[in-house]
Here is the input.
Amino acid sequence: MGGDTTKGPLTITLQVHGYVEPDMAVKRSGAKVGDDIYVTGLLGDAAAAVPIVTGELQVSSERFDYFYERFWRPKPRLIVGMALKRVVHSMMDISDGLAQDIQHILKASGVGANIDASRLPISAELSQWQPESALTLALTGEMTTNCVLRRPKNKPLRSR
Here is the structure.
């Protein structure tokens, strides 16, 4: 997973390199026509938290706690990514919002996509708090640690 944070007077860049067997690498270019699209967690919560954590918006302590956690303590889906590498065609992190990041997979793979917005995983907290903007935040919100992946149609993901 990657990304750069470059706003402010100081920029720190860190690179971590690893190794993966060539036949085990899941690339953006692997998506196929007919694949289903999945994401690994809730979308939009971290983006909704921005005005809360910057102090631009005052909310109840319960709401603050929920969104604070989503913003400052994200849960990277590394284990999920490693577990799924044998069963998905393509996968990448969502760091710039689903609507933008899915485009990287589509372009690299030469395929298209239809996303049913009614099936996006949006938290009840976000839907209740911001019903008019929850979908936009889910599609365009940055700062998530979820993954988007493409899997052969009608082959459900199973956990052991």
